[in-house]
Amino acid sequence: MSNSADEQYFNRIEEHFGRRRGGPLVLSPKDWGLVEAWHDSGIPLRIVLRGINQAFDRFAASGPRPDRINSLLYCEQEIRAAWEEYRGTHQHRHLRGDQGSKGLPKASAHLRVVSAACRSAATNVHMTVASCLLTAAAELDEIERAAADGDLEARSVDRRANDVESRLRSAVKSLSGTDELNALRLPPFSPYDA
Q1: 103 with 65, same domain?
Q2: Which of 40, 67, 90 is the endpoint of a domain?
């Protein structure tokens, strides 16, 4: 995705949320963090917009209220549900049955590389960031074992690896106040983004 496409993703979400909210709005840093997590997880713009619409529709259906939706956090559950539904029907259509009992050897190998990179990077950073990296490495090891054994479908490997990366990025950002993870030059966590 190009820089202008990235900007469009963020801008369209901000504009759409403001329109549905009924007034101008500057998103909070937490809201921008959510948008970034959705972007990093690969959630398509149309799915995010659909989730926002569903959240506002649900809010409106609950009857007249004096308050209004002030944060994208209110829409998070609907967006995640729309994303799960979309992925279940559209992405990675090859299921485990198509893989035979071989598992996902390429995905497994990629996850081993990323896990090793996290462990290696943990030796060169502050202890709190190192702890986050080691936790991510352990989670990737678990996903790798399940992928190697054929216990996970490709879409589950992709989703779980992206979730680990998003949680790591958020944790490192909250600890250091910067995106120190980019400086570590780790490979993409998802084997399908590599």
Answers
A1: no
A2: 90
Indicate the SS3 state at residue 132. Answer: helix
Same domain, 36 and 86: yes
Instruction: State how far the Cα of 92 lies from the Cα of 74, in Å rounded to an integer.
Output: 29
How confident is the model at residue 3, as a pLDDT? Answer: 64
State which residues of the chain have pLDDT below 70.
Answer: 1-3, 89-103, 179, 193-194
Distance, in Å, from the CA atom of 49 to the CA atom of 55, rounded to the nearest integer, reads 10
Residue 14, domain extent? 3-90
Per DSSP, the three-state class of 60 is helix
Comparing C-alpha atoms, which of 193, 114, 109, 98 is closest to residue 147?
A: 109
Give me the half-sphere count of Cα atoms (radius 13 Å) on the Cβ side of residue 73: 8
Q: Please, are residues 187 and 117 in contact by the beta-carbon 8 Å criterion?
A: yes
- Name the domain count of the chain: 2
DSSP 66: S
Domain end, chosen from 58, 90, 122, is at 90
What is the reported pLDDT for 41? 80
Residues 145 and 112: their CA atoms lie apart, in Å, by 9
pTM above 0.70, yes or no: no
